[in-house]
User: What shape does this take?
Amino acid sequence: MDQGYLHIAMSRAILSCRTLREATAAVTEDEALGPALQPSSPMYLLAATGAGGRLQAEVLPLKLVLSAVLEILLCGERLELATMQAGVAENLRRLRAGVAGEEFRAYIVFPFANLRLQSDATIETPWGELRAAHRLLADAFIDRAREVSTVLGMPIETRFVDEKSHRPNVESAQEYQRVASITSYSVTLGSDPTNPSSAIPLGWGGLSPLGLPGWGGEFRMPGRSIRDAPLSVTEINEIARWCGLLDDAPFGHVEVGLRRIVSALAERLNAADALTDAVIAWENLVEHRDQPTKSVLFGLQQLLAGTPAPFSKTRLNRLYEERSDVVHGEIVASADLLTASRDAISVGIYCFRSLFERHAELLNLSSEERCVRLGFSPAPPAHCPHCGEPIN
Assistant: This one.
């Protein structure tokens, strides 16, 4: 059984309950569910994710209870007998509606690693509330991801589809991936740039009356986290603001850089790799191929102008040199690399914040176009002194 230990213990407790045996007989006799439990009945797949299965009387009541418990925890409600009873009743209503071909409410659940929230804190996003994962809820993901710290539940309207007629919904999968990515970027950009936080997306799954069947998205692994302190109230408000800002912003031209900043911050075990990732993010922002180093350093200074970033031109130069040292195989002291990687990440965060908040008109440009618009002047092309033709 691919479930977490707490999930297994809870399942065993429910399976040994006399009421469950009574419920198994009841669903078999149910006018709506009885026909759907026959061996000849089709598999019921969730249209939102394409996952599901065939309804079985022996396990259906268990699934209805477990799903209700997970939804209660996902929504931050108290896990009490009354809320469980109400949740099971609502799941039964949804299942009957789904079997009848009607739409019903479900959730897309996004688990994240690395982000720490106080147990009573929530972050409001355009898709739902991001909250600390209750241990029982986090345990439900243990077969896929072992370090779930926070979860986001996005309510959706969906239905069941026949397995023979089901076609993967590419647009929905892309939207789920987008939600996970924006949430991750927003946590990094909205937290303290001098001590940034992160949220590593660990895929997504659909929570329906049948539980958490199926799994999609990327399987990204958390590395060495720089920060372990929970978010402050100010950071929580800022992250919520960034979720809304990125949801409306065209960030496709800089998403490589956003992803690299998150990777540098929380997915790398080696400081040299983190430093390399961070500088790649710089280059995604403002590199001009005509004069790569000069253009990046110029562009960074323009983006940092007017921000509280505590980095001088000399420090930026040195960070770029240390990245070059690493790339060319020179030995750099571990302590220096760690400091350089953290500073380079902070520089990247300040620059991304400046781009979105103070230079939003440049988002739809390439790095070269953006750098020129910020004031960089590429060197004029060289010409042959004899014929005057450009020299490539």
The chain has two domains: 1-248, 253-392. The CA atoms of residues 225 and 266 lie 5 Å apart. The chain has 13 helices and nine strands.
